[in-house]
Amino acid sequence: MFPVMLILNRPSDILPSEITPKQVYLSRRQWLAGAGLLSLMLKPEDAAAETLKSSPGPFGTDEAKTPLESVTTYNNFYEFGTGKDEPATNANAGTFKPDPWSVEVGGLCNKPGRIALEDLLKPHPLEERIYRMRCVEGWSMVIPWVGIPLAEVLKRFEPQGAAKYVAFETLFDPAQMPGQSSNILQWPYVEGLRMDEAMHPLTLLAVGLYGETLPNQNGAPLRLVVPWKYGFKSIKSIVKVTFIEEQPPTSWNRYAPAEYGFYSNVNPEVDHPRWSQATERRIGDFFKRDTLMFNGYAEQVASLYTGMDLKANF
User: Which helix (H) or strand (E) holds 191?
Assistant: First the structure.
């Protein structure tokens, strides 16, 4: 991530209705309906709203949600540009096609294979999780994600005992993702989690936000959400998941290992070389607030790192 000037007013005048082209929205709604998942595409007035589970408490927060317009127009998604406003423009320019979509799952598992997204989701109830999300640059949001626990998906492929990590890969297609024509990062974008992090109940595979399909600029149609880690750990537009024994490379660690570690845990005591991590500014707020250890999820996840030096393993 690169230095940016934080804009405190509205990030854009783009209307929510302009974020995802109508034909894309309707197409994805149709296949979700066909998969028995119509409850994903909710609006407050929908009669089926009760089928979407809301999970506060240990799986969410009762803090005020960041407005949809900010969530969908102030984004980091380098495949579509480095400016915060560029993903909303470039991801919806007509070249990116998130439907149909499939994911290849392999490595150290007993049931590898390529699976269509609708089949990947079918057996699992979708949930709404309202999570705090923090960027290493010092800004944060509260987002109501819609998705399924990653653990429920991974179990279907029967990971073997030797699998200690899960590696993820983003679609590589410069014709669809113009940012991949640059050399800002080594493409495709890759990310990884330790197996216990991947299997933690807070870790989510998100397919929507605010009761709607996931907008292109937010990682459509499938992205990772790990709320106790910095935002660059949230790999988007996932096409490949691999169970492996050795720690996998991650894009930002590969780009600047002195600045971005493998773990990427939110830690106010470990500063980025160019930014303090002690405080943050919630999008829409004027004043800064203290950054919470593990982004406020210490009670749920601190035990994963017992005995580790979190300054060395940043």
Answer: strand 190-194
Structure tokens at 310: 């979190």
Partners of 164 in the β-ladder: none
List the domain boundaries for the chain: 16-305
Of all residues in the chain, the percent with pLDDT exceeding 70 is: 81
Does 280 score more than 90 pLDDT?
yes
Is the model more confident about 7 or about 192?
192
- Count CA atoms within 13 Å of residue 133 on its CB side: 25
How many Cβ atoms sit within 10 Å of the Cβ of residue 220? 25
Between CA 154 and CA 287 the distance in angstroms is: 40
Give the confidence band of 10 by pLDDT, cuts at 50, 70, 90.
very low
Half-sphere exposure of 241 (CA within 13 A, CB side): 34
Structure tokens belonging to residue 19:
């974020």
- Residues 138, 110: Cα–Cα separation, whole Å: 41
Smallest CA-to-CA distance from 246 within 155, 162, 157 is with: 162
Among 3.40.50.1220, 3.30.70.100, 3.90.420.10, 3.30.565.10, name the CATH number for the domain at 16-305: 3.90.420.10
What DSSP letter does each residue of 73-98 carry, written as one string? HS---GGG-SSTTHHHHHTTSS----
What would the mean pLDDT of 168-193 be, rounded to a whole number? 97
- What digits encode the pLDDT tens for the residues 181-229? 999 999 999 999 999 999 999 999 999 999 999 999 999 999 999 999 9
Show contacts of 225-228: CB within 8 Å, 24+ apart.
Answer: 225/129, 225/131, 225/133, 225/145, 225/147, 226/193, 226/197, 226/202, 227/129, 227/131, 227/132, 227/133, 227/202, 227/295, 227/297, 228/202, 228/265, 228/266, 228/294, 228/295, 228/297, 228/298, 228/300, 228/301
**Nearest Cα to Cα of residue 251 among 140, 169, 135:** 169
Tell which wins on pLDDT, 51 or 25: 25
Query: Tokens in use for 37?
Result: 């998942």
